Amino acid sequence: MITRPDDLPEEELLLSGTRSCAGCSMSLMYRTAIKALGKNTIITVPASCLTVLHGLYHKQSVLVNVIHTTFETTAASASGIVAALEALGLDEKITVVGFAGDGGTSDIGIQGLSGAAERNTNFIYACYDNEMYSNTGTQRSGQTPYMAYTTTTPHGKLEHKKNIPMIMLAHNIPYIATTCASYPLDVFNKFTRAKQFKGTRYIHVLAPCPPGWGYPTHESIEIGKLAVRTGIFPLYEIIDGKMFLSKESEPYLDPRKRLPVADYLKKQGRFKHITQQHIDTYQEYVNGQWDFISKML
């Protein structure tokens, strides 16, 4: 697989001057992902920050085919595109990708995604997870983490995140991966690898959001790396039911090598109200998550 920055394709499929926010890690991730996907791709996108990035009709900021669909219908839209390509005999030549935010994936769109995965429909589904409904004013989503401030959880969310990759694992699909916008080579490798499989493939991408998370715009990459180094967001692949830790996360199977979760939480305004008890609860959750992972390896 690709391991060096100069191995990535030089052609840019994401044009400059998008309408995304300063420091938007989703746009950085998307730039790399569509390099891996290539021009022979049709992307379907619901109402989301990615809709904003693409721009208004009749202009758009990418050199691939994009269809904007309604909030809950990303997977249904992708399924229809796949069916049309199969009818035209083009399904082997064109990659279909559903690209949705965490709200449009784990909440509003989960029924369509589950149905497509149960049928093992032949497309890639990518969730860029900024852990809230960022495009509509930072409301709570199923991916909002424990004690994070949003406009609908002003004292902090009381529940942990939904584990969508594990929900997708229960559908017996051939390929599942997690990655983070702070690791562009990992993003590229996993989108490239996903293209090698047939059936429903799922990629979950952590995408730190400066205005929603409350940190300076120049710290997006650092925040994403802290999520990995504290063990809060493990990077892995699941191929035909077998989990493989990514090299970026392999060291953190040893709890002594993980940074304290407080190093991550205290750099973000959305956690400024938390107490030491909350931090301890968060640390216990992360440790339990890694105990589960160690049993899967």
Sum up the structure in keywords.
single chain; 297 residues; alpha/beta; Rossmann fold; 8-stranded mixed sheet; 11 helices; globular
Topology, please?
Layout: H1 25-37, E1 41-45, H2 49-54, E2 65-68, H3 74-88, E3 95-101, H4 102-107, H5 110-119, E4 124-129, H6 164-169, E5 175-180, H7 184-194, E6 201-206, H8 210-213, H9 220-229, E7 236-239, E8 242-245, H10 261-265, H11 276-296
Parallel strand pairs: 1-2, 1-3, 3-4, 4-6, 5-6
Antiparallel strand pairs: 5-7, 7-8
Describe this structure in words.
The protein has about 300 residues and is of the alpha/beta class. The protein has a single domain (about 10-295), classed as Rossmann fold (3-Layer(aba) Sandwich), CATH 3.40.50.970. Helix content is about 35%, strand content about 15%. It has helices at about 25-35, 50-55, 75-90, 100-105, 110-120, 165-170, 185-195, 210-215, 220-230, 260-265, 275-295, and strands spanning about 40-45, 65-70, 95-100, 125-130, 175-180, 200-205, 235-240, 240-245. The chain has an eight-stranded mixed beta sheet, sandwiched between helices. β5, α7 and β6 form a beta-alpha-beta unit. The longest helix has 21 residues, at about 275-295.
Which structural class matches the secondary elements?
alpha/beta
* SSE succession: HEHEHEHHEHEHEHHEEHH
Separation of the first and last Cα atoms: 21 Å
CATH architecture: 3-Layer(aba) Sandwich
CATH fold title: Rossmann fold
Give average pLDDT, whole number. Answer: 96
Overall shape: it is globular
Q: Determine and state the CATH class.
A: Alpha Beta
The gyration radius over C-alpha positions equals 18 Å
* Beta-strand percentage range: 5-15%
Tally of domains: 1
CATH superfamily: Thiamin diphosphate (ThDP)-binding fold, Pyr/PP domains
Query: How many strands in all?
Result: 8
Sheet with the most strands?
8 strands, mixed
Relative helix content:
25-40%
Give me the side-by-side strand order of the main sheet: 2-1-3-4-6-5-7-8
Number of helical runs?
11
**Are there runs of 5+ residues with pLDDT below 50, and where?**
none
